[in-house]
Design brief:
The chain is of the alpha+beta class. The chain has two helices and nine strands, in the order ββαβββββββα. This is PH domain-containing protein.
């Protein structure tokens, strides 16, 4: 997959590669554990009409999306069973990403926060 999560001592780093990084206009997002308010695995659909800096084609969402009054970073090809990080004190209000093993990644993050 073109997304990998690196669990470090003080932060989580979401790495994007290939066309995913091109579509998102970003190669990585670093998130200190202290910024994570909650982590869930859910269906997270974003309208094609949302203001964005990135890509929005069919069900593909890559990049920064303005949701309400907060910028969110979103990276998925399928909106079902994505990891959703609710953040505070970070450049993004949420980080939403698709990964092969979302429940396992959720458990790893919860063990750190």
């Amino acid at each position: 997959m073109s997304r990998q999560v690196q669990i470090e001592d003080q932060q989580l780093v979401l790495h994007l590669t290939g066309l995913t990084s091109v579509g998102a206009l970003k190669r990585e997002v670093a998130i200190p554990y202290s910024s994570i308010k909650s982590v869930t695995v859910e269906d997270f659909k974003v309208s094609l009409l949302k203001f964005r800096v990135g890509t929005s084609i069919a069900d593909i969402r890559q990049g920064r999306f303005l949701i309400g009054d907060r910028w969110c970073f979103i990276s998925y090809e399928n909106h079902r069973d994505v990891v959703v990080l609710e953040l505070s004190g970070h450049e993004f209000g949420k980080v939403v990403f698709q990964i092969d093993n979302p429940e396992e990644v959720k458990a790893q993050i919860e063990a750190r926060i």
